[in-house]
Design a protein that fits this description.
- The chain is mainly β and 373 residues long.
- The protein folds into 2 domains: 282 residues, Immunoglobulin-like; 80 residues, Immunoglobulin-like (Sandwich).
- It contains 1 helix and 27 strands.
- The strands form 6 sheets. Strands 1, 4, 5, 6, 7, 8, 9, 10, 11, 12, 13, 16, 17 and 18 form a 14-stranded mixed β-sheet that branches. It has a 4-stranded antiparallel β-sheet with strand order 24-23-26-27, with no helix packed on it. A 3-stranded antiparallel β-sheet has the order 20-21-25, with no helix packed on it.
- The radius of gyration is 24 Å and the shape is elongated.
- 39% of the residues are buried.
- The N terminus is likely disordered.
Length: 373
């Protein structure tokens, strides 16, 4: 029998400092991350192919193989294993995002010869994810608070732990308990509407088999203990570099205390679980070529001065473009790419942008979005 569990989930973080990033191809320098000679990729799902969190992996079949991060990319940094053995533990992870939505989507597929998840506490096979989407860097747990010894442990925990970067200690699988331990006081961050998770498996504790874990989380620049009212979501956009990492903690001894059988880490630093400067760089990739239209008109606008009816228009079209034509809906036009227009009279306007390029033309209109009273 297949067991499917649906659980709430999410992600949280805080902005503190700005780190300069220099990207040349897929090499980053001058950044407080690990493995900066490699930038891992986050697949962009087209808006009509957003993965449904239901344990069905077919949504992920469009993700190319070079986005998959397997056990061969991990290091067992506790010294218990010299190399990966796929007959003992074999994992595959894919990460995705959708332009315009501040979520990270994960598909975690793992084979283990002994799944350990019978106990109600921390002792559980685990997929531990840490995210720092604004790359603020530095420690994120109370133990390494820079003012430790000056402020109280309580203040350090509630004002600091997982506030500017988040740690999700995800139980694989979680049976009879919450899907993850959010390592901090902002427990709201692992619940809907900020996250969701589903497992699919057909084994019992102590047996071997394959696990599918599908989930999404919301990264935060600030995720405080006081609740989501003051939280600041991390804004995700194309080509952004984020700090991200995970570890796989493997237990093969359900009745023997807390000793694990391996800590497999994407970072060379074991302490990445509490230090965002020890994560690795991931790039939010553009759409793969097969999902792009050769030419697509798109635009946005901002009312600069409502009293004077001054509106700034911003071209966001995609493809090779040689000409722009704006119709502002009041009888005037422009061929500038990013025009600023002053409307003579209040009103509700239909604004049209038509772009032209080697592949043809494309038009995009907004009906009454530009309303000036």
């Amino acid at each position: 029998m297949i067991r499917v569990k649906r659980l709430g989930s999410m992600m949280h973080r805080l902005t503190t400092t700005f780190a300069a990033v220099f990207v040349t191809g897929f090499v980053i320098t001058g950044l407080g991350l690990e493995r900066t000679n490699t930038v891992f990729k986050v697949f962009q799902f087209p808006p009509d192919k957003i993965p449904r969190v239901d344990g069905d992996t077919s949504d992920w079949e469009i993700v190319p193989s070079d986005y998959v991060i397997g056990t061969d990319q991990l290091v067992e940094d506790s010294g218990k294993h010299a190399a990966a053995n796929p007959t003992n533990l074999d994992v595959r992870v894919r990460v995705g995002w959708v332009k315009g939505i501040n979520r990270l989507y994960f598909l975690y597929e793992a084979f283990d010869d002994y799944w350990d998840f019978a106990l109600p506490g921390l002792h559980n096979d685990t997929f531990e994810v840490v995210v720092d989407a604004d790359m603020s860097g530095g420690p994120l747990i109370e133990r390494w608070h820079p003012a430790k010894g000056i402020i109280s442990p309580r203040e350090a925990y509630f004002s600091f732990q997982s506030v500017h970067a988040q740690n999700y200690h995800i139980f694989t699988p979680a049976e009879g308990k919450d899907w993850c331990m959010f390592w901090g006081a902002a427990q709201w961050a692992k619940e809907l509407p900020y996250a969701n998770a589903v497992y699919k498996y057909n084994f019992k504790p102590g047996e071997g088999g394959k696990l599918v874990l599908e989930f999404w989380i919301t990264p935060f620049d600030y995720a405080g203990a006081e609740g989501p009212g003051r939280a600041v979501e991390s804004v995700l956009y194309e080509n952004k570099i984020i700090g991200l990492c995970w570890a796989v903690i493997d237990y093969d001894n359900v009745n023997s205390g807390t000793t694990n059988n391996g800590f497999w880490n994407l970072s060379p630093k074991h302490t990445m679980y509490g230090n965002a400067s020890e994560l690795v760089p991931f790039k939010l990739m553009p759409l793969e070529p097969q999902f792009r239209k050769p030419l697509l008109a798109k635009w946005s606008f901002k009312v600069i001065d409502m009293d004077r009816r001054v509106v700034a228009f911003n071209d966001e079209s995609e493809g090779i473009i040689t000409a722009w034509k704006w119709d502002f809906g009041d009888g005037t036009t422009s061929t500038n790419q990013h025009p600023i227009h002053v409307y003579a009279e209040p009103g509700q306007y239909t604004v049209v942008l038509e772009v032209e390029g080697p592949s043809g033309t494309s038009r995009f209109s907004r009906v009454w979005d530009v309303t000036l009273k």
